[in-house]
C-alpha cells in the first residue's frame, strides 16, 4: 500500500472515530426542559411492539447544560457528574403497535392522538396517564418529554401501526346462541287429545300421539304427531289443527 493510500485510510478511520460519537449524541431521552438529557447508547426493537432504548449521561451534554443554565459556575459540570442521577442508566420502552410507552421514570402512558397547533408541540403525540388524564404539553406537566422518548423508540411517524388482523385459527370461537323459545301458538295440544287436522280440503278427526320440537322460520317450534281416523299419520304444525268440540 502506498504512503498516500495509507494516509487516506488513516484519515477515513479518524473521520469515523470522530463522527460516530457526534451522531450518537443526536439522540437522547428527555428528562425535562430544564434538565440535562442522557445520551442514547443502545437501542433494540425500534418501531416494533418491543422497542427499548437505554441512555447514559455524557460529560459533553452536562457541559452544554451548565453553560446554558449556570453560566460562570466552574463547579457545575463536576457537581452534576458526581450526582447519583448522572450515574444511572435510563431506560425507556414502548409498544409501537399498541401505542403505549413506559418512560424513563417508570410510568406508563397510552397514546391519545396528537396535539393541535394552538400551542407549543402542535402535531406531536399526546398522552394519557394511568388515571386516564391527558398529560399537558407545558413544561411542568412534561407531556412533550414523553413525545420525545416516543419519537426515539417509534420513529416511523411517531404513531402506532395498525395491528395485523387475527388469523382464523387465532380468532376466539363464539359459543352457539341458546335455542330460541318456541313461539306461542294460537292453540296448544296434549298427547292423547282428540283434534281435527287439515287433510287436503277437509278436516279429519284424529288424536295427538306425540309432540316434537322442529326447526321453524323463527327458531325451534312445536309440531304434533297426529293419527287420523282415516288411518293416515303425519307431523303437523299447530296452525293445521283444531280442537275438537266438547
Task: Describe the secondary structure blueprint for this structure.
Layout: H1 3-24, E1 39-44, E2 51-56, H2 59-69, H3 76-81, E3 90-95, E4 100-102, E5 108-114, E6 125-128, E7 134-135, H4 143-153, E8 194-199, E9 202-216, E10 219-228, E11 233-237, E12 241-243
**Quaternary arrangement of the chains shown?**
single chain
Give the N-to-C terminal Cα separation: 123 Å
Which strand-content bin applies to the residues?
A: 25-35%
Structural class determined from secondary elements? alpha+beta
Main-sheet strand order equals 1-2-3-4-5-6-7
Number of domain modules: 2
The total count of strands amounts to 12
Low-pLDDT ranges = 1-25, 161-166, 178-186
Region (Disordered): 156-185
Protein name: Agenet-like domain-containing protein
Keywords: Signal
Signal peptide: 1-24
Amino acid at each position: 500500500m502506498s504512503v498516500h493510500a495509507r494516509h487516506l485510510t488513516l484519515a477515513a478511520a479518524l473521520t469515523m472515530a470522530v463522527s460516530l460519537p457526534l451522531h450518537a449524541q443526536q439522540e437522547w431521552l428527555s428528562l425535562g426542559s430544564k434538565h440535562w438529557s442522557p445520551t442514547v447508547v443502545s437501542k433494540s426493537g425500534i418501531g416494533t411492539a418491543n422497542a427499548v432504548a437505554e441512555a447514559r449521561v455524557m460529560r459533553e451534554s452536562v457541559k452544554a447544560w451548565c453553560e446554558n443554565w449556570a453560566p460562570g459556575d466552574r463547579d457545575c459540570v463536576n457537581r452534576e457528574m458526581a450526582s447519583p442521577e448522572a450515574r444511572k442508566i435510563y431506560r425507556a420502552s414502548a409498544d409501537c403497535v399498541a401505542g403505549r410507552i413506559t418512560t424513563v421514570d417508570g410510568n406508563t402512558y397510552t397514546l391519545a392522538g396528537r396535539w393541535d397547533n394552538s400551542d407549543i408541540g402542535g402535531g406531536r403525540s399526546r398522552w394519557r396517564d394511568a388515571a386516564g388524564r391527558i398529560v399537558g404539553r407545558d413544561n411542568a406537566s412534561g407531556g412533550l418529554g414523553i413525545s420525545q422518548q416516543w419519537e426515539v423508540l417509534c420513529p416511523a411517524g411517531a404513531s402506532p401501526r395498525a395491528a395485523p388482523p387475527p388469523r382464523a385459527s387465532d380468532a376466539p370461537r363464539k359459543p352457539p346462541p341458546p335455542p330460541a323459545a318456541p313461539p306461542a301458538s294460537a292453540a296448544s295440544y296434549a298427547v292423547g287429545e282428540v283434534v281435527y287436522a287439515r287433510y287436503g280440503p277437509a278436516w279429519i278427526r284424529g288424536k295427538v300421539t306425540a309432540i316434537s320440537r322442529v326447526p321453524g322460520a323463527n327458531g325451534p317450534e312445536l309440531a304434533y304427531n297426529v293419527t287420523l281416523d282415516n288411518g293416515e299419520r303425519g307431523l303437523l304444525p299447530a296452525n293445521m289443527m283444531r280442537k275438537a268440540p266438547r
